[in-house]
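Hey, can you fold this one?
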Amino acid sequence: MSMRTAAFLAAALLGLSACARVRPAAPSAPAQALQRAAIAATTPDSRRDIVLAVANPLAPPPMHAGSNLLGYAASKHYVAGQHAASTVDALARQYGLHEIAAWPIKPLGLYCAVLEPPPGVSRDKLIEALARDGRVQLAQPLQSFSVYSSASTDGPAGTRRYNDPYVGLQRGFIATDAGAAQRFALGRGVDVAVVDTGVDASHPDLQGRILGTHDLVDAGAGGASRDHHGTEVAGIIAADRNNHLGIVGMAPEAMLSVYKACWYPPDGGGAGIARCDSFTLAKALAAVIDTPARIVNLSLGGPADPLLHRLLVQLLNQGRIVIAAMPPSGRLDGFPDDTPGVIVVRSSGASEAPPGVLSAPGDDILTTQPNGGYDFTSGTSMAAAHVSGIVALLLSMSPNLDAGSVHDLLLRTSKTTDGMLQVNAHAAVDALRGAHEIPR
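Sure. Predicted structure:
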């Protein structure tokens, strides 16, 4: 069996809806410099590359007596319709493009490719020319995105009922009355998709809380367990409770499905600002589309992106509840915050929130860290994670809630704590139970 065939079968068994086209391995070379150059030549670069999509009418491969499952189709077309892959090849030849990666997005009926423009050609002018080409469904820059967090060093005090030693230091848990809410709901039966960096799945407070991890950045590199941001978000949402360890998650019986679409630059040391791009985020969102996860946590953001917008709309149309972090700029004009139906969350503050935006604790939040650690961190990323945990509590009580109802409930039951109006887990759970009417 060829390497390409084996790679495709492995991807099919995993059930991923998006997979990169397998490319020939670079010739072996004794010099590490040559190896690094070969890797760089097949690595997407948001400063240079473009994303192009063509229609992808998939048809089952031909079957013949004695053939294998894949029939006799050319191996380069195993993961795409013959017509779509040929169209991309023709476009690449005509415009002098070098293909870096390619993958089908079945829910949109598209075949996407990341392509490097020829030297000396303006990327903007090339995109304009491709947009006028009748074969092209979408042409855009490969864009860069980032997570919204920053490290902090000190935190608060206070709470009850748990043997987890650091629960009294959990500012967000206390401010949202999560302990009282957990008398009635724990998030059981709810799957939260976390599109982020990797997560340390071996962390003692996260063991048993992670359904699966999917690396859309560098599969096989083994670096996900060292990633800070995803581990921080995961702990806020679903860290275990009453295990005599660390902290308590907002929904400690919810399950997490982790999609690593963001990474730390090599010189960032793993604790800096993680980056993502259109390519990795599109693969992650397309993969989520094929799962039953009701909640999608996006503690990240960047410029408006046509391809990612289409995928996000598809998720919302499927009834997913998408929670997004508000950009530090406060402008709601990019991905994912500019898409109607997405629940946008800011860090609680003294100023009034923009219309429709929820406020949640985001400053000095104690949460899980790689290698079994705990530390304080800040950012709207953490505020969004608090809301995802509260939504998991609500869905465990009422699985048919839709995004609009959840948003309105959380906005209506927000309470003033420490002079700031912010979401309140107990009030939202209480209102859903119908115990009493929460004043507007």
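The first strand starts at residue 50 and ends at 55. Let me know if you want another pass with a different chain boundary.
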